[in-house]
Design brief:
heterodimer, A: mainly beta, seven-stranded mixed β-sheet, globular, B: mainly beta, six-stranded mixed β-sheet, five-stranded antiparallel β-sheet, 11 strands
């Protein structure tokens, strides 16, 4: 029944490792996003995909690589993790780009 | 880039009081959205506004899309303890991005 689901919910890993976060939406939306929420709760968009095509790529280190195998899935792979990557990452989706976005529960990434 | 100024940053109120928070921007937005985030959860959409001047209610919540398209407010009437959380405004512009405010942390004392 979950509209936007992402896994894992918690991820603790060492510096230098590579990790992935998966996201799936069952709302039939055409657009999916990755947002990063820092320790001050500020939400900042990282990427946006529309119909599997990348349409927004904010100033994000190229260690972060999103992949959308189909409209319902948007995964985030992070290479060579750094301490500063520790944050909560949210996946979201919307029917139309830049409109009502529905968020997943978040993945709390802790890099040690 | 587009920025939103959300205020107040935090509020401490007594149960039963009314609450008001707002967002302003130097940029015009086509959409204004209000979200609530509880600890350990993702933001949940409360109200969506699409027309300048639009006033929309969702239970005890009321939000308005400013006539200049550069601001929006959210009111909560007769607050209850479960209203506790962080409230975010978000503006949708012609750049196809949602820009979020920095949030208003609401604490309700029973």
């Amino acid at each position: 029944d979950t509209a936007v689901s992402q896994t894992p919910k918690y991820l603790v890993t060492q510096m230098g490792n590579d990790k992935s976060i998966k996201c799936e939406q069952n709302l039939g939306h055409d657009t999916m996003y990755w947002y990063k929420q820092d320790s001050k709760k500020f939400l900042k968009i990282m990427f946006s995909y529309n119909n599997k095509e990348l349409i927004i790529n904010e100033t994000v280190p190229n260690r972060f690589s999103p992949k959308s195998p189909d409209k319902a899935h948007l995964n985030l792979h992070i290479n060579s993790l750094e301490l500063g990557d520790s944050a909560v990452y949210f996946c979201a989706s919307s029917q139309v780009v830049g409109t009502e976005a529905f968020f997943g529960q978040g993945t709390r990434l802790t890099v040690v | 880039g587009q920025q939103l100024n959300q205020s107040p940053q935090s509020m401490f109120i007594q149960e039963g009081e009314d609450v008001s928070m707002n967002c302003t921007s130097s940029s015009i937005f086509n959409t204004w959205l209000w979200y609530k985030q509880e600890p350990g959860e993702g933001p949940v959409l409360l109200i969506a506004l699409y027309k300048a001047g639009e006033l929309t209610s969702n239970g005890r919540l009321t939000a308005q899309f400013g006539i200049t398209r550069k601001d929006s407010f959210l009111n909560i009437s007769a607050s209850i303890p479960s209203d506790v959380g962080i409230y975010f405004c978000a503006g949708g512009g012609s750049n196809y991005k949602l820009t979020f405010g920095k949030g208003t942390l609401l604490t309700v004392n029973p």
